């Protein structure tokens, strides 16, 4: 297999990817970041996420994906989305799930939530951390396991990743994306 693992998330100033009800609020959605994210997912060979995460974009139904769930044992095609494989990591490896989904090469986009991000923390080639520095989501859902006790930067650094130069995605709101890569 020749897979490149990339993570994608946008977070509030306090490291949250969702509000207290586990929903990404509209206040955390910025056009520049949405465009960056959509273009990345259009290039992905496979998208991996939990059952509450979904990008809800026009091309979403066409994208091949793994959806993590504990409700099944064997790998199976999602009856509601023919391009999606339901995957329980307790019963099949990531490599087995990729083979079932017929993906052997290309970029794999990990898009959340926190437990899903955590599963790949030592496998990312690049983690794209978008940040909205003027928005706070008190009581929200941290982007990674261990946030807000630690910052997203501390979590990524603790897994051997270092930040590159940030790119400005939305000048009006100072939203940036920073590529974190293996040291």
Write the layout of secondary structure elements.
Blueprint (H helix, E strand, L loop, with lengths): L1 E11 L3 E3 L12 H13 L2 E5 L14 E4 L7 E2 L6 E4 L6 H7 L4 E6 L3 H6 L6 E7 L8 E2 L9 H7 L2 E3 L3 E4 L4 E8 L1
Parallel strand pairs: 1-7, 1-8, 3-4, 3-7, 4-6
Antiparallel strand pairs: 2-9, 5-6, 8-12, 10-12, 11-12
Keywords:
183 residues; alpha/beta; Dihydrofolate Reductase, subunit A; ten-stranded mixed β-sheet; 32% strand
What is the CATH third-level topology name? Dihydrofolate Reductase, subunit A
Number of domains: 1
Number of DSSP helical runs: 4
User: Low-confidence parts, pLDDT < 50 over ≥5 residues?
Assistant: none
Question: What class, by secondary structure content?
Answer: alpha/beta
* Tally of strands: 12
Molecular shape = globular
Distance, first to last CA = 23 Å
Major sheet details: 10 strands, mixed
Find the CATH superfamily: Dihydrofolate Reductase, subunit A
The helix-strand sequence is EEHEEEEHEHEEHEEE
Description:
Helix content is 18%, strand content 32%. Strands 1, 3, 4, 5, 6, 7, 8, 10, 11 and 12 form a ten-stranded mixed sheet that branches. The chain has a two-stranded antiparallel ribbon with strand order 2-9. By secondary structure, the chain is of the alpha/beta class.
Task: Describe the structure concisely for a colleague.
By secondary structure, the chain is of the alpha/beta class.
